[in-house]
Amino acid sequence: MSANEICHEAEVTEVRPDSLLVKVVDSSDCGGCALFRFCNGNSELRLEVERKGEDEYCVGDTVRICASARSHISAMTLCILIPLAVLIVSVLICSAFGLEDVWAAAIGLSSVGIWFSGLYLLRHRLTGELLWTIVRG
Questions:
Q1: Using an 8 Å Cβ cutoff, are 61 and 23 in contact?
Q2: Contact 83, 114 (CB under 8 A)
Q3: Nearest-angstrom CA–CA distance, 7 and 66
Q4: Closest to 23 in 3D by CA, of 12, 31, 8, 39
Q5: What is the CB neighbour count within 10 angstroms for residue 26?
Q6: HSE toward the beta carbon, residue 52, CA cutoff 13 A
Q7: Which residues contact 10 (CB under 8 A, 6 or more apart)?
Q8: For FRET with 125, which of 33, 79, 97, 116 sits at 20 to 30 Å CA-CA?
Q9: In what order do the strands lie in the sheet with 62-67?
Q10: pTM tops 0.70
């Protein structure tokens, strides 16, 4: 574990051949995270983590899951920076075409809604970008 990783204590809830389903028990490393409010809105955060190696896990085991700084930056970019840019660009374009502020705001918010809908639809493809590693607890 390096200093740039974000780690959590988690409990194994399901064991699959190539992955584990875990429930995050400890969110102490989340304090400095820009995405804290997004993840921790749900007090029972559950993640699917890919298994690497030959370690055997059982339901109820306590493990430590870690995400790299790269994963953190990718998540922050996808969830905060790009939607903010989409909102600003949409509103500026609408204003440049002379639309009223109400319409510019509505179009800007709709654009952000479309962005998040696209993220939702592509969530399975994006899981490769946000990698968690398992370390024995």
A1: no
A2: no
A3: 4
A4: 12
A5: 13
A6: 7
A7: 22, 23, 24, 25, 26, 47, 49, 62, 63, 64, 65
A8: 33
A9: 46-50, 19-24, 6-15, 62-67, 132-136
A10: no
Q: What are the DSSP calls for the chain, one per residue?
A: --TT-EEEEEEEEEE-SSEEEEEE---GGGGG-TTHHHHTTSSS-EEEEE--SS----TT-EEEEEE-HHHHHHHHIIIIIHHHHHHHHHHHHHHHTT--HHHHHHHHHHHHHHHHHHHHHTHHHHTTTS-EEEEE-
Question: Which pair of structure tokens corresponds to residue 2?
Answer: 């390096």
Digit-coded pLDDT (tens) for 66-88:
887 788 788 889 889 999 999 99
